[in-house]
Amino acid sequence: MKTIKQIINSEQLNQPVEVKAWVKTFRNDRFIAVNDGSTIQNLQLVIDPEQFDENLRKKINTGAAIYAKGELVESMGKGQKVEVLVNELEILGESDPEKFPIQPKRHTLEFLREKAHLRPRTTLFGAIMRVRNTLSFAVHQYFQENNFLYVNTPIITGADAEGAGEMFQVTTLDPAQPPRNEAGEIDYKKDFFGRKTNLTVSGQLEAETYAMALGKVYTFGPTFRAENSNTTRHLAEFWMIEPEVAFMDLHGDMDLAESFVKYIIKAVLDKNYEDLQFLEMRLKNEEKQKPQAQRSELALIEKLQFVLDNNFIRLSYTEAIEILRNSKAYKKKKFKFPVEWGVDLQSEHERYLVEKHFKSPVIIYDYPAKIKAFYMRLNDDEKTVRAMDVLFPGIGEIIGGSQREERLDVLLQKMKDLGIDQEELYWYIDTRRFGTAVHSGFGLGFERMVQFVTGMGNIRDVIPYPRYPGNAAF
Ligand code: 4AD
Ligand code: MG
Q: Rounded to the nearest whole angstrom, what is the distance from the C-alpha of residue 234 to the centroid of ligand 2?
C-alpha cells in the first residue's frame, strides 16, 4: 500500500488507490482529511453521504483509523491538487470524539507535553519528527561519505571522570538494604558489575581510544546528565554526536564542525521544505506575541539559508571578552554575570555575541584552562587550552569540542592537579603511552540542533519523550 506522500506525488490520476490513515477532520458529511505521517499534507477523501450509511459516517471522527479505496482525481477544491473519490470505506479503529484530546484546533505546547503519547498526531509534531529523522540520517550520511566509522560506546560506564555533568547511578542493589562493608559503606563489590556504575555523560573518552586505532570515528547515542537544570536547553536524557579524529588539530576540528552542521541543515532544506514552511509560519505566529526587540530578524528558512551561505565567525575567548567589555550592554550594566578574563561565558554573553554583535554563528576557541576539562590540549601560554564552542543564534552553545592533550607528562600532571584518579583511567592514559598523536573531536547536542532547525523554543518539544527533573512519564 502506498503512503499518502507517494499517492500525492504519483500523479497517477483516474486510477484506483487505497489508503490507511487517521482522520484529521470531517466536514459537510462529505470531506475527510486524513494523514498517515508520511507528509505534512493531508489527503482529501470525498464520500457521497448517500452511499454510506449513517452509522458508519458517525464513526468518521478526528483520530479514528480508517481504510478507504477509491479513485484518485484532480481536486476542484482549494488547498489540494488531488483527492480520492471513495467507493469503499472501513473504520479500522474508532475514536471517541468526546474523549480524544487532540482536536482540530490550536493546543498549547504545555498541554501537548502532558499528552506526549498523542502529540505525534498533530501537524506540528509530525513536522518536527520528520525533520528530526532527516537530521539523524544526514548525520550518518555525512560521516559515512567522509570515511568515518560509527562506533557504539557504552551507555553504562564505570568511568565517572570526565566531569561533564552530574551522573545517574545504575545499580541492582536494594536501596532500602544495601550490603555494607566493614567500614559501614555501601559495598559495590556486591553490585551487579562488582563496582559502582553510572549512565554515560559522553562517549568521548572511549571514542578517543578507537580514533587512536581507526583514525576517524563518531558516536551517536543517548547521553545522560542529572543536572537539575530546568531550562529550555537542557534534557536529562539527550542524544549526542561525537566525532573523534586522529592527526587533526583544533583548526581541523572547527572546519569539521562547520562543514558537518552545514551538511545536515542542508539535508533538511532539501527534504523537508513543506515541514519547514509550516514550522516557519508557527514561529512567526508565536513571535507576534513577543515585543519587537525579541523577534528574530530572519524567518526560519532564511535563517537556515544564512547559516549555509556564510562562514562562521571564529575568534578567541580573549577577543570575545574584549568585545563584551567594550559593548554598550556591558557599560550600561545590562549583563547579570561578570565579564572578565577567566570567567565562563554565560548564555547572556554568548547570545550577545551571536545575536547582537556578529549576527552569525560564532566559534570561540582557546578558553582559559581553568574552566575546561582535564583532557584539553594546553597552549604554550600555559593559561589557555585548545577548546572550541560553536554558538548558534537562539540556542547558544550547540557544539563543544577540543584538541586533546596528547603529551603523557602534561596529561598526568593535569590529572594530578585536578585529583582525577589515574588508576581508574589507566586505559585512557594508555592511548598516550602507546603511539600517542595529535587528535581532536567535538560533541553536538542533537536536540539543540533539532531546536535550531525547527525553531522550537523548548528542547522538550523536539524529542518524543523528554526526560527532565520531575518527569519520566511514558
Ligand atoms: O560541551 P559538552 O559537555 O561536551 C562534551 O561532552 C564533550 N565530551 C564533547 C566532545 O568533545 N566529544 O556537551 C556537548 C554538547 C553541548 O554543546 C550541548 O549542545 C549538548 O552537548 N548538551 C546538552 N544537550 C541537551 N541537554 C543537556 N543537558 C546537554 N548538555 C550538553
Ligand atoms: Mg560544553
A: 12
